[in-house]
Amino acid sequence: MEHKLRILPPEVLMEQLLGLLEEADSVPLVISGNSMSPFLIHGRDTVYLSKVTEPLKRGDMILYQRASGAYVLHRICRVEGETYCLVGDAQCVIEPGIRRDQVRAIVTAVRRKEKLLKKGSFWWEFFEHFWLRLIPLRQPLVRIYSRLWRERK
After folding, report:
1. CATH classification of the domain holding 24
2. CA pair distance 96, 54, nearest whole angstrom
3. Cα separation of 26 and 47, whole Å?
4. pLDDT tens, position by position, 108-147
């Protein structure tokens, strides 16, 4: 029996994934992209998405949909009234004006380097609190981290 490879557009896959949230407590999603590095690495790490049931706050990682239709996973760095300012862990440019109706899910757990992390674990708390305060210093810190990582290989 021959299998046919079917490639679906990302928005179709995301809609199916989000549909699963109606039936399950948590849905896994393998990270794609580098905006959440160094906490989450493209192709290596998995986030577990859940429905948003409580008010969102600074430090929460959320999956949201931009006006362009693109789905993005970033962290809330500020709550401004009815909107959120978001930033990826590898970024220093803040995206303001994300409305609650654009938020599709919240990250409740992460499989990082084959270890399951949840709120309260060291790395979760480090990136949720400490790393979030270092937005202006991120670019030089990420460059140093990348250089050290390459030298280790």
Report:
1. 2.10.109.10
2. 21
3. 10
4. 999 999 899 999 999 999 999 999 999 988 888 878 877 8
Tell me if residue 63 falls in helix, strand or coil: strand
Token digits of residue 125: 């708390």
DSSP 8-state code for residue 7? P
Q: How far is CA 152 from the centre of its chain?
A: 26
The answer to whether residue 123 is domain-embedded is yes
Domain of 72 in residue numbering reads as: 10-152
How many structural domains does the chain have? 1
Non-local (6+) Cβ contacts of 33 within 8 A are 42
- Backbone angles phi and psi of 20, in degrees to 5: -65, -25
Tell whether 136 is covered by a domain: yes
Q: Residue 60: helix, strand or coil by DSSP?
A: coil
Taking residue 28's Cβ as centre, other Cβ atoms within 10 Å add up to 13
Q: What is the predicted pLDDT for the residue at 14? A: 83
Q: CB-hemisphere CA count at 13 Å for 11? A: 6
What tens digit of pLDDT does each residue of 82-109 get?
999 999 998 989 999 999 999 999 999 9
Q: Are 135 and 94 in contact (CB under 8 A)?
A: yes
Query: What sign does the dihedral 148-90-132-110 (CA atoms) show?
Result: negative
